[in-house]
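Database export, one record per block. Field names are fixed; values are copied verbatim from the stored entry.
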Amino acid sequence: MKLRLDHDVRLQLFSGYGAGFVAVNNVRYEKCVVVSPQAVMEWSAGAFERLTAADFEFIERLKPEIVILGTGAAQRFPPPALARALAATGVGVEVMDSRAACRTYNILATEGRRVVAAILTD
């Protein structure tokens, strides 16, 4: 699926999503990524089932107001212990499938929100 928005070219926005990849500003990534309006970083998180609180240390560094967690092809909710750890950061965390996460991130980023997307590409 291609995503298209007219936007400030300095913003990092999702331009595509498919099985096993995302594209940000037309650059394809086949690994998990953390995307903010200013940067794209490869994310060392593995599969959804192996996510830990340590995988979300970027939250403190990036200081977003909201994190959108894209859980791959299907929406899956983190186990209670991880959900509690994420809530303890004080940052809003929304969980959705990765395709919806990419679209939602683009909307919030173009509105000037301090948003970060953490996308699993499985």
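Remark 1: The first strand starts at residue 14 and ends at 18.
Remark 2: The helical segments are 58-62, 80-87, 98-110.
End of record.
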